[in-house]
Amino acid sequence: MARGQRTDQGTEGGSVPERLLGAATRLFAERGFESTSVQEIVVAAGVTKGAMYHYFGSKDDLLYEVYARVLRMQTEHLLQIAGREEPVAERVRAAAADVIVTSVANLDDTVIFFRSIHQLGEAKQKTVRAERRRYHEHFRDLIRQGQDEGAFRDDVPADLVVDYFFGSVHHLGTWYRKDGTLSGEDVARHFSDLLLTSLRPRT
Hints:
By secondary structure, the chain is mainly alpha-helical. It has helices at about 15-30, 40-45, 50-55, 60-80, 90-105, 105-115, 120-150, 160-170, 170-175, 185-200. It contains ten helices and no strands.
């Protein structure tokens, strides 16, 4: 999958799960999670209810997967970036840019999930929060490495750096517009520059 590529292929093609997720994402965005029925999803995806229940046990499972697939992609990218043989500052820059680009490319998925997470069962809420926490911990480890090596200032806790940065990332859905003046790559460049600038050691 190319960097920033959407994780679904819509309902025109792709596997049954991809078609279901594409239809669910569109309908959840248009009508809301509560107002969308399973029947409407399967009709939009061009599959039967039996086919849906073969892959997803409930509408909750579809909502969970809308976001979880984006998070899995981002985690895979982060681990690949973290393992590169290059200075930690460049890896942090690349990781920060990647999460912006992929979030913008899948903005509907993320907005839908955060708008409706409270409607998931408790177990699934715990699962997705634990998965997101693991992603943040991997990112935090890169920050700490930079602090340990003297590449980053160490007077601010790495956890606070991560909370500050991802607060901005999760806020994207409230202001970013795909038909606006900034592309996802533009925002990624600016955000990663701001992060790296804030981490420079004080002289």
